[in-house]
Structure formats: C-alpha cells, structure tokens
Amino acid sequence: MNLKKIIGFAVGPIGSSALGLITVPIIAWLYSSEDIGRLAVLQVILSSAVLLFSLGLDQAYIRNYHESKNKPQLFKTSLVPGLLLLTCTLAIFGAFPGSISKLLFDVDSFSISLMVILYIAIGFITRFISIIFRMQEQGLFFSLTQLLPKIFLLIIIGLYASLSIGLDFYYLIVASVVSSTIAAIFFIFKTKSTWQRALEEKVNKDQLKPMLLFGMPLIISGLSYWGLTAMNTIFMRNTSTFDQLAIYSIAISFASVGGVFRSIFSTIWAPTVYRWEYEGVAVEKIKSTTDQITFSIAILFCITALLSSSINFILPNKYSDVQYILISCMAYPLFYTLSETTGIGSGILRKSSHTLYSSIAIMIINLIAIYLLIPIYGAAGAAVSTAISSWLFLLLRTEISVHTWKKIPRCKTYITTLACLTLSISYTLKGSESPYLFAVAWLTLSLVIIFSFKKTCNTILKSITSR
After folding, report:
1. What is the C-alpha separation between 13 and 173, in angstroms, rounded?
2. CA–CA separation, 192 vs 417, rounded Å?
3. Which is the most buried residue in 93, 196, 381, 436, by most CB within 10 A?
C-alpha cells in the first residue's frame, strides 16, 4: 500500500478525532450530564449490536477477500446472516413500545425506542459498506464513513444551538439518527455496483460454515472492547451517578485520539501482514514493527499526560477530573494496537479461538476490577480498571501467539508498557494532589524511552524523511 493510500485511510481517524474534539465540548456545554450519560449508553449499544450481529463475518470477509474468486458472493455471504438476525431481533423489541428507551435510558418513550432501532440498523449497514471501501483500498471513502456522520451531527447541533431548540436527549438522539441516515444513503449510492452484483449471487452455504468458524470467536475477541469500556459504562449506569458517567464518557471521547493510532494501524496492518506471510518475510518485519509501535505508544502516553491539563480550557469546570482520567482511558486503544502486532500469530494460523481465550479471561478480570473500583473511585475507578485489563490483554494475547506460532522478543515491550501503565494509574488516582511532581515524572519517562529506543527512533525518523 503506497503512501497516498495510507494517507487516505488516515484522514478518517484523524478527522474523526478532530471533529470529536470540537463536538464533545459543545455538547458538554449545551446538554446536561444526564443526557451526556445517556448518549454514552447509546453509543455502547450501537457498537455492541454491530459487533454481535455481524457474527464475525465482517472479519471473515476481510480474511478471505484476496483469496476469493467471487467477491460479490463473498460479500453477500458475509452480510445476509447477520442482517436477518438483526432484523428479527429489532422486530421483537419493536413490538413492545417504549421498552428499549425504558431499559437503556430510564425514559418511557416509543419514539426514542424507534430511534434506537433505526440507529442500530443504519450502523450495521454502514459497517459493511466501510469494509467494501477498505478492501478495495479506497482510503478516502473509507475515511468518509467515519467523518460524514460526525460532520452532519455537528451541523445539526449547531442549528439547535443557534435556534435555541432541541437541548434535550430526544433531539440529541434525533440528530444522531438523521446524521447517520444521510451519510448511509450517500455510501449506499457510492457502492451500488457492489450491492447490485451481490444481489445477483446466492449465499454460499459451503463457504459460510468455515467463515463462521473463523469469525464467531472474533466476536468474543471484539467483546473484549465491550468488556474494557462498555461494561464500565453499563456498570456505572446502574451503580454510580450520571455525573460520573458523563465524566467517564467525555474522557473516553477524548481518548479517541489514541483510537486514531489504533484505527489507522488496524486498517492497514492485517492485510499487510497476511501478504508478508504469503511472501515468507513476516517474522522479521513483525519484530521491527513491534519495536516501532512500542516506542510510538509509549511516547503518546507521555505527550497525552503532559498536555492533559489543556482540556480544562474547553470544558465546563464540573468536568475538571477528565484531565486525570484521560490517560488511563488511552490505555485500551494503545495497548490494543500493540497487541495487534505481538498477537498476530493467531490470525496467521487462522486460530481465532486463541484470541477468544484471552478475551474471556480479560472480561472476567475487568468485571472484578470495576466491581471493586467504581464504587470507591467512580469514573477514575472505571478508567483504572480499563487500563489494567488492557495491559493484561496485551500480555495474554502476546504469550498465546508466541507459544503457538513463532517467538518474538518481548521483554523490552513488557517493561516499557508496564512503566506507562503504572504511572498512568498513579496519575489518574493521585494526579490532582501533586500535578507538578507528575509532570516531572512523565517528562523523565519520555526521556528514558527515547534513550532506550534510540535505534528505533532513528529508523522512524529516516523513514519519515525519506517519504
């Protein structure tokens, strides 16, 4: 993949993060903390539903794309089972007006329940549209699947603010649904040739079974994200206050800056490493990439912590704790990115069940952690539990890959990431007591990392300047 295509894929995560940095403060000023907490629950439900109802076939589509001789049929085989299951499930919930909104938001409203159903259905379709762009290496359009809904949402929220209307949760969810719908219609039009060819094909039942065997364990792997972030949101919804939930959700939103790094890397990494394996050069390139990613995420930890206090300039005073919680919320996207490198052996071997085991273990660990920490520390406890579980997920996924595929050096990776984890937790829980001391600690750690990865740092700089 050339630099132009990489930039195309990078536009989405970078632009989405930038829009988030604009949208989140605006919503924080305009809407109550209760509404922000409800919006966080809505986002959790969307991501979880898309993950579950895709049945892992979206990942199977990616894995089999280059080997498939009939790509339209592969797409239909990937889409139809999950779409049918989603339709039946939403129809059942739709038969009980108001049940969804009462369960999720403690508001009995048929219209809000209908909006949730539409939002999930649109999100599911958009997910499969995005992988069409991804595998056809249309980086710019892939990026637009992330950007356009947020752009339209920002426009609608701006209209609300200018007209002094719609400043409650009902209008907030309407804005989310309308923005997603407009974007989805545009993407369906852009991919109409793929849809038309797919409609002419039949679902390949012989191909479906191995795809499900590959994809289904990845649902549990994907649920590790749910277990490390969404589980915290649901737990706080029932055991803490909407104020704490709002603080946590805003910190997670800002942590999407780390998600930029994860999204760009994940989009490019899997297809690339599978090609390396086919060419017989995977091991050496993975070793080099592991050092570069370890260095990069460690520096991102330090930069984020040193600049976190700047958040206070754009948020209301009641969200001042976000600056300390943010760094622990960054742990998941950064550690997950690294685990994509160190744990790639399972994907190469097509042993997706390996990731399943580590995901289940981490979900259990995280459940125990949030049960112990959230009642005491609230949003800070949720962030710390996510950070600890994320590092353990990296550890387990790496060790399983190493012992089932091929060995890669990992001691330096473990020491570096553990140092970032330890300082992050300390900063989240005690940062407000000694902010200047922690600033010195983060600066010191950054210098130690640069010295320790001097060779890797030079390699990255040479690569950037040569490009």
Report:
1. 23
2. 45
3. 381
CB–CB of 388/425 below 8 Å?
A: yes
Residue of 242, 255, 240, 237 lying closest to 318 (CA atoms):
242
Domain extent listing, the chain: 1-203, 207-467
Phi, psi of 31, rounded to the nearest 5 degrees = -115, 160
Q: What is the CA radius of gyration of the chain?
A: 22
pLDDT tens for the chain, 467 residues long, are 555 666 666 666 677 767 777 777 788 788 877 787 788 778 878 887 888 888 877 877 777 777 777 887 888 888 888 888 888 888 877 777 667 777 777 777 788 888 888 888 898 888 888 888 777 777 777 777 878 888 888 888 888 888 877 778 888 888 888 998 998 888 888 888 878 787 877 877 777 888 887 777 667 666 665 656 667 777 776 666 667 777 887 887 778 776 666 666 666 666 666 666 656 555 667 777 778 888 888 998 999 899 888 888 878 877 888 889 999 988 888 888 888 777 766 655 555 555 667 777 777 888 888 888 888 888 888 889 889 988 998 888 888 877 777 677 788 889 999 999 999 999 999 988 888 899 999 999 999 998 888 887 777 677 666 65
